[in-house]
Every structure is written in C-alpha cells, then in structure tokens.
Amino acid sequence: MRPPHQDVPEATLRRLPIYYRCLQDMMAAGVVHVVSCADLARALGLDATLVRKDIEMTGIVGKPRVGYPLEDLVRWIENFLGLNRPKAAVLAGTGSLGSALMGYGKFRTHGMQIVAAFDIDPEKIGQPVHGMEVQPLFCLPDFVRNTGTPLGLIATPAGAAQSVADLMVSGGIRAIWNFAPAHIRVPRRIILQNEDLYYSLASLSFKLEHLMTVAPVESDLYVKNN
Amino acid sequence: MRPPHQDVPEATLRRLPIYYRCLQDMMAAGVVHVVSCADLARALGLDATLVRKDIEMTGIVGKPRVGYPLEDLVRWIENFLGLNRPKAAVLAGTGSLGSALMGYGKFRTHGMQIVAAFDIDPEKIGQPVHGMEVQPLFCLPDFVRNTGTPLGLIATPAGAAQSVADLMVSGGIRAIWNFAPAHIRVPRRIILQNEDLYYSLASLSFKLEHLMTVAPVESDLYVKNN
DNA sequence: TAGATTGTTAATCGATTAACAATC
DNA sequence: TAGATTGTTAATCGATTAACAATC
Questions:
Q1: Burial class (CB in 10 A: 0-12, 13-18, 19+), B49
Q2: Which residues in chain B have Cβ-Cβ distances shorter than 8 Å to A214?
Q3: How far apart are the CA of B202 and the nearest CA of chain A, in angstroms?
Q4: Which residues of chain A have pLDDT under 50?
Q5: A71-82: buried (b, 16+ CB within 10 Å) or exposed (e) per residue?
Q6: Could you tell me if A130 and A103 are in contact, meaning their C-beta atoms sit under 8 angstroms apart?
Q7: Considering only CA atoms, which residue is closest to the C1' of nucleotide C22?
Q8: CA–CA separation, A20 and B141 (whole Å)
Q9: What is the pLDDT of residues A143-194, one digit of tens each?
Q10: Which of A189, A192, A205 to mutate to test the interface with B (most CBs of B within 10 A)?
Q11: How far apart are CA A155 and CA A81, in angstroms?
C-alpha cells in the first residue's frame, strides 16, 4: 500500500489513462489474462521502466516473473484515478460544443456526470438538450452551493468565460474544466484545466512546418551542413 | 536570427500560445506598447526567466532596459508557430463534435482551415454542414492526394478512428489531430496529436480526489503525520 | 534450479531556475 | 551615469533511463 498519493508527476497522470485504455482493449480482446510492463511498453512504444514506475504509483503489487493480472491492473488504475467514482459537474454554455459534451454518454463511466446545464440565452433556457432542461445562468451559483457540485465545465464563447468562472467560484466549485478559448484566472485553491483547442493547434501548426520533414537523404546532408 | 528551429521543447510549444493570447489581449486593451518578460510572467504567474527563454526560441531580439515592442512580439510568435499560414485540413466525422469543429470560425486565423468534410453515413453525405457539403468517406484519400492537404481531423466514434486514420495515411496526410476517444497507430513519420477528453478527464478526476484538499490547519497536521 | 519480471536504487538527461555580464 | 532588462552561462531540480538485487 505504498503510494504517497502526493506528488504524482503530471507526466504519469497523462500516461496512466493511456495504459488504462490499452489494457481495456486487451481485456476486450480476451487473449491474455496477465500483462507485464514490457508488454504494455511494447504495445505503446514506451520504455518498460517508465511504465513500471507509473504503474507502481497506483500501489499495485505485481508478481515477479509473471506480471500483473490484467483485470486487477485495470481496477487499480481505475480506482487510483477515481474513474469508478463519477464526479458531478455543471455545464455552462449549451452551444454546439456544450451540446457535444452533453452527448458524451461515456463520461459517466469515466469519472464525471453532468448533472445540470446553464445558459444565458433566453431562447435556450427551458429547452431540453440531450434530455436535460437548460437553466438560466444566474441560478448556477446556488445550484453549485446547494448540491455541492465539485466540477464546472465552461463551454461558452471566450468573452463570457471569465465571468462564468467567477460565478462557479462564487458558488464554491472546486475544479473548472475550461473549453472556452480564453485565459481565465481563478483563486489558487481551484483546480483549473484548460482544454484550449487553439493552444493545441498552435503546437500542431509548428510541428507541421518544422518537424515534419523527415527529409530524404540529400536534404539530410544539407541539414548537417548548417 | 538565432533559433535552431529544431529541439524546441514541448513545454515551450505549449506555453508560447499562452503568451500569444495574453499579448493579444494586451494589444486589444491598448494600454502599453512595450512588454518585458517580467510583465508577461507576472500576468501569467510564471517565472520571468522561463518566459525569456521561451521567447528567445522565436528568435526575436529585444532591447535591454526596454523589453519587446508588443506588436513585434505578437508577430514573431505568430510567425514562429505558423499561425499566419493556415494549413488546409480535412475533417472525418460530422457528428456533434465534428460539426462543432467546423463551426470554430477562428481556426482560420489560428493556423488551420477545414477545406472538406467526410462521413460514412449516407444520410449525412450530400447534406451541408456549416456551409460545406459532406462527402463520402471513401473519397477522402483521393482528395488528400490530389489537393496535398497536410492535416486530417478525426471526429468519428472510437471504433472508426483507426480505419479513418489509415485512410488518411494512405492519401499521404502529414499530420493527424485525433478527437476520437481511441488509441490509433500511425507510421512514425506522421505527426499525431491526440485530443482525448477521457485522458484529460482522468487526470482531472485524480486531482479532484487527491490534490484538492488544500486542507485547513488541523488536517495539515494530520497529513504531516503520515 | 534457471530465468524472467518486479521493486528499488543509481546515473543520465533535459527543463527550470538562478546568477551574472552586456547593453541601451 | 545609473538602472532595468536582455542575453547567456551555471546550478538546481525533476523526470527518464539504466543497473541491479529480490523473488516467484
């Protein structure tokens, strides 16, 4: 029962879900019932020691010479990440993106359940979106307070993001998942995760221009001359 | 004209777009026309030296004692990341997410333009989505080949993601931006960027359970006892 | 027993931070 | 000139990789 549960590196936190999906796929395939770090590393093109360290963070104890029982490992990661304990979430903004988020049915089995949706547009308020009635935005803080909802999703236009974040914070939200293309500021105690497509696009754009040329031989020579 | 344009750290590539947006906001506010690394660092809660190193990667030369002309800096980052040279992109999958992506009008001014949309559903083919006629999926490879489109977006269900990726690769795509919740494999030369919400959700879930308690004093004592 | 794999400790590598010299 | 900020080099820190001992 080793894990400190503190200082789990961000990088580990990014990789564990990848292992999780890969292991689930293996389980679905049903070919093997035990998996070693080397197996996982090979499947994902990673270093085996890195995989082992990551997996150790979950606290599971494996069997030398054998590996980890596939199903056990899946459960440990699931439990470690909390994917089996869905967090309630409120959604602000029911445009195309917000609506798409509500349609992601599998969020519930992956740690989150959207329990209410809010919008400022009178035309949308009262209308059902994916079977849930849209509520007026000003009701959001009270809803968060009264239900103790820990997580808020922002899927508004950029201009509204900061004020919506403030509303969430005023209601006592603990974490914000921001999909609006805007930089928002929140108190230090709030967990903020930005899912900004423009940020992703920027690095993709760079790579496409610069990294992409795994150049043919002549060009390689040219490059070396620099 | 210093930058190697090779080995730009991933971390730098993630932060530059953040600076870019912040600087644009400053420009819009119009209060200042010159900015120092310390200014930027303060605005974003980062270390000033870190900001300077990142900015140096773009190759811009600043003035000691003064800083960087705001507009110049914006242009340098923009040019460095290639945001001013839109890349053509094809979209596969025109469900709610794909449709939302097509609706992101500002992609064009941020490095990407969706030039064609594909789907396998006969009901969607031929229909317009955001003013663009959906084409049958089997036409995708030829389209990519004939137009030299460098970038492919996958917004299909998980089950279809790998085969769509294969189609894109067969057409000669150079980069794939994958929004489907699935692990896909591509040849090493292809740039692959995953935008997997389940991965993000997993780390958010963990933080919500474990990191969130910036605990009151008694709890702090308790934690120390571990 | 022999050998493969885990668990753990040490070495390496890269990114961040700190220190300082150059300069407007 | 004095001082703030850039540009650059050195120190620190953390994550990855390598080495090895423990174990089934």
A1: exposed
A2: 188-189
A3: 6
A4: 1-4, 212-226
A5: eebbebbbebbb
A6: yes
A7: B64
A8: 32
A9: 999 999 999 999 999 999 999 999 999 999 999 999 999 989 999 899 999 9
A10: A205
A11: 24
Nearest by Cα to A199 from B16, B200, B40 = B16
Buried b (16+ CB within 10 A) or exposed e, A168-206: bbebebbbbbbbbbbbbebeeebbbbbbbbbbbbbbbbb
pLDDT at A213: 46
Residues of chain B with pLDDT under 50: 1-4, 212-226
Q: Give the SS3 label for residue B91.
A: strand
C-alpha B225/C-alpha A224 separation (Å) is 57
Å between CA of B10 and C1' of C16: 13
- Tokens describing residue B90: 């094809």
Please state the separation of Cα A148 from the chain's center in Å: 21
Helix, strand and coil in chain A, % to nearest 5:
50, 15, 35
The answer to whether strand C lies under 7 Å from the CB of residue A11 is: no
Strand C bases contacted by the protein (CB, 7 Å): 3-8, 14-19, 22-24
Q: Could you tell me which residues come within 8 angstroms of residue B45 by beta carbon, excluding any fewer than 6 positions away?
A: none
Average pLDDT of the residues of chain A: 90
pLDDT digit string (tens) for B107-146?
Answer: 999 999 999 999 999 999 999 999 999 999 999 999 999 9
Contact predicate A132/A101, CB 8 Å: no
Q: How many CB atoms lie within 10 A of CB A26?
A: 19
Predicted pLDDT at B57: 95
Residues of chain A with C-beta less than 8 angstroms from the C-beta of B93: none
Task: Read off the pTM.
Answer: 0.89
What angle in degrees, to the nearest 10, is found between the helix axes of A48-57 and A10-29? 100
How long is the CA B221 to C1' C16 vector, in angstroms? 31
Tokens matching residue B70: 């705001």
Tokens of B124: 């969607």
CB B117 within 8 A of CB B98: yes
